[in-house]
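Methods — Computational structure assignment.
A single polypeptide chain was analysed. Its primary sequence is given first, followed by the predicted tertiary structure written as structure tokens.
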Amino acid sequence: MECLVDLGWSGTSTTEVARRAGVSRGAQQHHYPTKMILVAAALEHLLEAQRLAYETAFAVLPKERRNVTGALDLLWEVFRGRPAKALMELAVAARTDEELRPLCVDLNERILQTIAETFERLFPANTLPPDFTDTMLRGLFAMFVGLSIQNALDDDSRGHQAAVLRQVKEIAQLIVPEPGGGAPQRAPAATAAGAP
């Protein structure tokens, strides 16, 4: 993943990965004979590590932050991190790489599945219709991908990504129940109505 962030897809090689990992080229090739097999294994590891880190980070939030706004703040942190940048690199490269494309299409679906499963675990009182939840999470994923690309270019120097995130959190508070079965939070009337 470090190679993908630092060198891009075209610059990532099994030789460079072995060098950075401090293993011999022979040992690396014994376990991962091709670049594609190596990247697929790394993605498996990355996805599970990211899920565990996210759920752990959510669990240690102060109680008043263990809600949908806290969950979205953490998700935005994930999308701005180095592992997400590696995934973005793969997604962009897959547009023109026929061999890489199936891996990335499958990866997108697995990420969405992980997000959906995590959402269900964190918000078990959710009563949204399953088809709405699926579409909502796909839309959120697509939006965060786009925002993270913008963030990689300008580090939100004008505050546009933060403004989008604020509005998304206000909307989410209206439709997602609090963990533990409480009623959905309501955005403050002035904010919800757009008043000063």
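Note: The longest helix spans residues 35-59.
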